[in-house]
Amino acid sequence: MPVGTSGGLCAGRVVVVTGAGRGLGRAHALAFAAEGAEVVVNDLGVGLDGTAAGADSPAARVVAEIEAAGGSAVAHGGDIATTEGAASLVRTALDTYGRLDTLVNNAGFLRDRMLVNLDEDDWDAVMRVHLKGHFLPLKHAAAWWRAEAKAGRTVAARVINTSSGAGLLGSVGQGNYSAAKAGILGLTSVAAAEMGRYGVQVNAIAPAARTRMTEETFAATMAAPEEGAFDAMAPENVSPLVVWLGSDASDGVTGRVFEVEAGKVTVMEGWRRGPSADKGARWSPAEVGETALKLLAEAEVPGAVYGAG
Ligand SMILES: NC(=O)c1ccc[n+]([C@@H]2O[C@H](COP(=O)([O-])OP(=O)(O)OC[C@H]3O[C@@H](n4cnc5c(N)ncnc54)[C@H](O)[C@@H]3O)[C@@H](O)[C@H]2O)c1
């Protein structure tokens, strides 16, 4: 679908993508625009560890790319992990386009260290950008959707949160990031349960793609292919699912988590109760230990933590 035509899966929708100046967010923003959406491209333009990276505005570059392809987009350069940044992000969508339909929470950065070496600042910075950086835009968008629903207008809003394999299984050297990304899964479940009544669907993805975040650490997995072969780790492979989740077409899908990379989409089935025992009275520690070992012998072994062993 050429950008700027009136058709497309997201024609008439206004989409906000956080951290859309590069990597996965940029790919999502371009893909939404190609399906007819008007896009608010947020990016603070920080370095890989979240520290300031000069006057560069990657959001403005992506807006220029969308406009050059005939689409419509506006840049927002605020910090989504602050109330002012999140509120002004939603306001930018409303002031520019008069509405907001889809929020893609994607911005983030890394401060990888083994837990024993992890400074409190590196813990706080990563929890803040991912977890608070998901909560605040969600809260401010939801306030508008709730007001719309209360005013009697039909809301078909979509939120796509960005978790990670690190949040699903854990990742050695990424204790802060794994905790934040696991927190996003809990936030997704609660937001889906609370906001369904206002017409808001909330889902999460755990992507994998070649970006500045992964191209060095996972150089072999992320390497670009030979000319002409399928570029499995291109960020653009993740965006079609995000665009569908962010469109009217995903009606009825909420509270779900998808792993997505290359040509593969997997529905994650999450925590579910395994073997259990009920004595109907208080156990002694020795007795409950013996029972726990029996239950563990019957239970499925959890997936391996990334980088363990
Ligand atoms: N690349 C992967 O394989 C992978 C795997 C799992 C999860 N993720 C997640 O996907 C998301 C995108 O990552 P990416 O790989 O494209 O990384 P990236 O570094 O290429 O892009 C992230 C963008 O977020 C922006 N950003 C950071 N803090 C911000 C803030 N406070 N406000 C606004 N913008 C801010 C950065 O400037 C950057 O442009 C992240 O949440 C990441 O944790 C990526």
TrEMBL record:
Q: Membrane-spanning residues where? A: none
> Residue ranges of the Ketoreductase domain?
13-208
**Entry-linked Gene3D superfamilies:** NAD(P)-binding Rossmann-like Domain
A single Gene Ontology MF term assigned here is: oxidoreductase activity
Give the UniProt keywords, A-Z.
Oxidoreductase
The organism's superkingdom is given as: Bacteria
Q: Which Pfam families match?
A: adh_short
Q: Which family does it belong to?
A: Belongs to the short-chain dehydrogenases/reductases (SDR) family.
Which PANTHER family does the record cross-reference, listed alphabetically?
DEHYDROGENASES, SHORT CHAIN (PTHR45024), SCP2 DOMAIN-CONTAINING PROTEIN (PTHR45024:SF2)
Q: What is this protein called?
A: NAD(P)-dependent dehydrogenase, short-chain alcohol dehydrogenase family
Its taxonomic placement starts with: Bacteria, Bacillati, Actinomycetota, Actinomycetes, Kitasatosporales
